[in-house]
Amino acid sequence: xxxxxxxxxxxxxxxxxxxxxxxxxxxxxxxxxxxxxxxxxxxxxxxxxxxxxxxxxxxxxxxxxxxxxxxxxxxxxxxxxxxxxxxxxxxxxxxxxxxxxxxxxxxxxxxxxxxxxxxxxxxxxxxxxxxxxxxxxxxxxxxxxxxxxxxxxxxxxxxxxxxxxxxxxxxxxxxxxxxxxxxxxxxxxxxxxxxxxxxxxxxxxxxxxxxxxxxxxxxxxxxxxxxxxxxxxxxxxxxxxxxxxxxxxxxxxxxxxxxxxxxxxxxxxxxxxxxxxxxxxxxxxxxxxxxxxxxxxxxxxx
Length: 302
Known about the structure:
Keywords: Cell membrane, Membrane, Transmembrane, Transmembrane helix, Transport. Helix content is 64%, strand content 0%. The protein is mainly α. 25% of the residues are buried.
């Protein structure tokens, strides 16, 4: 502080505290991953990619490649010929099986996301008698193996005349106990009760509150649930193999027919396996942004 024509007066003498000096932020130790982290991630990456590379290595060769001890670790040039053999095999019925897998997996994923979000919203934000115990019962059903219900389900669909139809694999999978638990936990942590009270003050009904508040908040978790449900339904083999026939199979059931002969050509089998994974890889590429967003928001909220 200074006065005209006088020496400057320290700020402390007039009762004004001096501005403290700002210290430079110290770098946090361990903020950058070390070589152990990169080595571990590299090992996990190699372990994840190796099955695909092995399938490509065998699927691009011929029938003798898998038994050749001196095989080359460079993929051959027969992959497209083997893939054409899979697609053109009349026993496999590739294109109808692919369409059946897309339809059934898409409907199952959409239904699980819809019903799980509705049920999760009810368990997380609505208060009703017996709600906690009902949630415990829903979660407890995950401990029941699917194999215990195969015989009653098959008898039921046989009496309904649904065996051999896609409805027999879609109807039992329309809901998911894990999906209900997943969405309940996410909505309970991500949606403040004040938003719901504000929507009710504005005159919104319960369902409109769910649409305007719950659905936008649940989008990242719903995207992850839909992605994982689609992959699980796509790879499901046990129940479709039992209830469907060879004229109307899903893709995993159709590809299993490649091994029904006396001589199994594993180059063609693994070429078919790679063909069945291409739609999943494309799905992960286009849904990767939502997947990472859901993981990051779940980590921050939790």
